[in-house]
Design a protein that fits this description.
Elements lengths: L22 E3 L7 E4 L4 E3 L2 E4 L5 E4 L2 E3 L2 E7 L4 E12 L2 E6 H9 L10 E5 L12 E5 H10 L12 H12 L3 E4 L5 E5 L2 H8 L3 H8 L10 E4 L7 H16 L3 E4 L5 E5 L2 H8 L3 H8 L10 E4 L13 H9 L1
Antiparallel strand pairs: 1-2, 2-3, 3-6, 4-5, 7-8, 8-9, 10-11, 12-13, 12-14, 15-16, 15-17
């Protein structure tokens, strides 16, 4: 049984923010659920109409995490893993909270890629503050387990140093280091060699070269030996990619149902009309019919939608909201 220890944020159910706590929408659930840099999950207030026309109001609430125990048979103990369990529109979701915290507060990555592992630097799975998280590969995570002596090596008589060097000979790939102006500093025969010479984590350089993170050790990295790295193009591409992965896509319509524009995020939609995004968020959740004189729909909408007749009084109200 898990012993409750109130010093960890995951046990704090108060809606009052912890000191230095920040919140971001959970990717794909903008306006419905949020995650904080301390690993707490918040359900936002919303109204939902069921098939019988009955309106149910969900109040703002901190959701208690599910605590998973991963037993270690070698050490006769276990490690903690925190998961967010919630439902939306009849579907149930089971998400790793430490992956969400890393994605939202450190850097985006493919959340569906199970080869990407997020570990806690201090080994405590209840402490999933963003400052305690690190992105690594499955192989690196496995090596870390052996280094911490939480598992016996699978091959006791293998010279791991020689095996590693032999692997590098076969799989090494040139990688170049660039400054913030895009000028090449040096080319290395492999990520491992760059990591060894500069004392920068292998996973950080690898993630940067694969465009999962912007920089590693304060430098840009790219496979090959090109003399120049286009920093501006890379950052623009990364910004768009970040919005496409994380943002809630929104379509804007006139009150007659004609499509006006499409946006990658709620923020972009709000900026286009010089308003706050909360009204648009309420509109796409069905809490209100229109916002700021427009109809808003989640996702990429079709060119024309059918709309109910809106009275002149409603038009005036929606122009304000």
């Amino acid at each position: 049984m898990v012993q409750k220890n109130n010093k960890y944020p995951c046990y704090n159910r108060s809606l009052k923010n912890i000191e230095s706590e920040e919140w971001e929408d959970i990717p794909g659930f903008d306006g419905y659920y949020m995650v904080s840099n301390f690993g707490r999950i918040k359900r936002m207030r919303r109204e939902q109409v069921n098939s019988k026309g009955i309106v149910r109001i969900y109040k703002e609430q901190i959701i208690a995490p599910r605590i998973g125990l991963d037993p270690n048979h070698y050490k006769k103990d276990f490690t903690y893993h925190l998961f967010a369990h919630f439902s939306l529109e009849g579907n149930r979701y089971h998400l790793s909270i430490r992956r969400l915290v890393y994605y939202c507060f450190i850097g985006p990555f493919d959340l569906k890629d199970k080869t990407v592992t997020i570990i806690c630097n201090n080994g405590n799975g209840l402490d999933i503050r963003h400052v305690n998280l690190k992105l690594t590969s499955l192989s690196e995570a496995s090596l870390r387990v052996m280094q911490l002596k939480r598992r016996l090596p699978e091959f006791k008589n293998v010279d791991h140093k020689k095996a590693s060097q032999a692997s590098i000979q076969v799989t090494s790939r040139q990688i170049s280091q660039y400054d913030h102006s895009g000028n090449k500093i040096k080319t290395y025969p492999s990520i491992m060699e760059a990591s060894r010479q500069l004392n920068i984590a292998y996973s950080s350089i690898s993630n940067t070269a694969h465009e999962r993170e912007p920089t590693a050790g304060g430098y840009y990295w790219m496979f090959g030996n090109a003399s120049y790295f286009n920093v501006k193009s890379f950052l623009e591409k990364r910004s768009i990619g970040f919005k496409e992965k994380k943002g809630t896509k929104v379509t804007q319509y006139s009150l007659t149902g004609h499509r006006i524009a499409q946006f990658l995020t709620l923020t972009d939609a709000a900026k286009s009309i010089g308003k706050d995004y909360t009204g648009i968020s309420a509109a796409i959740r069905g809490i209100i019919t229109c916002a700021y004189g427009y109809i808003w729909k989640r996702g990429w909408g079709k060119a024309k939608i059918s709309v109910k007749k809106i009275t002149s009084r409603q038009r005036k109200q929606h122009l304000k909201v």
